[in-house]
Amino acid sequence: LIYQLDHYAPRADTEKTFSFPLDLVLRPHDERVVVAFGQRDGIRVGHAVLAINGAEVNGRFTADGKDVLEFLGNPANYPVSIRFGRHRLSSNEKLMLASMFHSLFAIGSQLSPEVGSSGIEMLETDTFKLHCFQTLTGIKFMVLADPRQTGIDALLRKIYEIYSDFALKNPFYSLEMPIRCELFDQNLKLALEVAEKAGPFGPGS
Amino acid sequence: MSRSPGRKQENHKISRELFVLTYGALVAQLCKDYEKDEDVNDCLDRMGYSIGVRLIDDFLARSAVKKCRSYSETADMIAQVAFKMYLGVTPSVSCNSATGNEFSLILDKNPLVDFVEELPAERASLCYCNLLCGVIRGALEMVHLAAEVSFLQDRLKGDAVTEIGITFLRKPEDKKHRR
């Protein structure tokens, strides 16, 4: 993974005040506390605890170092205001997911009943579509967008052009390394904005 | 050196003379730096290689061509599309071997040598345009085609035409997967 950009529209997160006992079931997952059961009012299963009483949590610990689950298990701390939402992926997680996708892509092109398959071009789910474009040189460009968003193919080709211009033509950029080129970022954001305006507005990355 | 139409930036061309002069200055400086012609040729080839590995993506993004299915398609693509796009000339392609992996590009016009009549006596084995060979080699390598590229004939050395030879090194059976 040599480049990733989150071009989110403002994310929906929900902040609510709760009194003891908490009617959501929370459990630790990776380095966060997530909702396991008890979906309601915009708080969905899989949402993570983002902040308690306005102070952002640090993984599984509150801002002042207490364990979140312990804190929420103590009736003396209530009423408490908790903010839930989808947590952003850390760069390590993104790296891991990208490698996973790379392997799936290769498996996909091998399994395909058609000869000479080019691999996974699109992955469609209820909430998003993942588009992938692999160049003849082996670089993959992936865009996650709202399912209703159109014009992603043109966007992928445009991103390829931007990459070939501002990353490759930069004499100080070494191939296969993470891209840290200001012009690349700027032009990429510009292209994303153009694409968003062209299609129905939706979150994209 | 103009960008293709439809780009956000304005279409500004850089003068061809400037490019040819820059290339000439590059070769002249290398001749001052290195005594032996082979060293200069090597250096030009390596520089061309670094250009080629980057230029290929620009070529693919700009021309949106499909994957080539054979060596002869590849050679045609290089001559008719790539050379046209970057140097404005279209060399003719001929196949040199029965096995179908050796090709020649015959250039009757080479913009890089516009201002060069002939090589100086002490630089008789210099390949003036060796950068081009490196570019082709680098570009092919990035699309997983190993090749040897060199000048077979050179007008500057007194031959009748300028001929670049491309020898593809691997069988195409592994072209099928993972591209």
Automatic annotation (TrEMBL), chain A:
Q: What UniProt keywords apply to this chain's record, in alphabetical order?
A: Cell membrane, Endoplasmic reticulum, ER-Golgi transport, Golgi apparatus, Membrane, Postsynaptic cell membrane, Synapse, Transport
Any single Pfam family the record assigns to this protein: Sybindin
Q: Which domain of life is it from?
A: Eukaryota
* Locations listed in the record: Endoplasmic reticulum; Golgi apparatus, cis-Golgi network; Golgi apparatus membrane; Postsynaptic cell membrane
Gene3D superfamilies in the record: 2.30.42.40, 3.30.450.70
Question: What SUPFAM superfamilies does the entry give?
Answer: SNARE-like
Q: Cellular component per GO? A: endoplasmic reticulum; Golgi membrane; postsynaptic membrane; TRAPP complex; vesicle
Record InterPro entries? Longin-like_dom_sf, TRAPPC
Q: Which biological processes are named by the entry's GO terms? A: endoplasmic reticulum to Golgi vesicle-mediated transport
Q: Per its database record, what is this protein's job?
A: Core component of the TRAPP complexes which has a function of guanine nucleotide exchange factor activity for Rab1 GTPase. Plays a role in vesicular transport from endoplasmic reticulum to Golgi and autophagy. May play a role in dendrite postsynaptic membrane trafficking.
Similarity remark:
Belongs to the TRAPP small subunits family. TRAPPC4 subfamily.
Q: How does it assemble?
A: Part of the multisubunit transport protein particle (TRAPP) complex.
Q: What is this protein called?
A: Trafficking protein particle complex subunit
Automatic annotation (TrEMBL), chain B:
What is its subcellular localisation?
Endoplasmic reticulum; Golgi apparatus, cis-Golgi network
- Name the predominant localization: endoplasmic reticulum
A biological-process GO annotation: Golgi vesicle transport
Enumerate the InterPro entries for this protein. Answer: Bet3, NO_sig/Golgi_transp_ligand-bd, TRAPP_component
Keywords from UniProt, A to Z, are:
Endoplasmic reticulum, ER-Golgi transport, Golgi apparatus, Lipoprotein, Palmitate, Transport
Q: Which domain of life is it from?
A: Eukaryota
GO CC annotation:
endoplasmic reticulum; Golgi apparatus; TRAPP complex
Keyword Transport listed: yes
For the keyword Transport, the answer is yes
Described purpose of this protein according to its UniProt entry = May play a role in vesicular transport from endoplasmic reticulum to Golgi.
**Xref: PANTHER family:** TRAFFICKING PROTEIN PARTICLE COMPLEX SUBUNIT 3
The UniProt similarity line reads: Belongs to the TRAPP small subunits family. BET3 subfamily.
The entry describes its oligomerization and partners as: Homodimer. Component of the multisubunit TRAPP (transport protein particle) complex, which includes at least TRAPPC2, TRAPPC2L, TRAPPC3, TRAPPC3L, TRAPPC4, TRAPPC5, TRAPPC8, TRAPPC9, TRAPPC10, TRAPPC11 and TRAPPC12.
Protein name, as recorded: Trafficking protein particle complex subunit 3-like protein
Q: Which organism is it from?
A: Vidua macroura (Pin-tailed whydah)
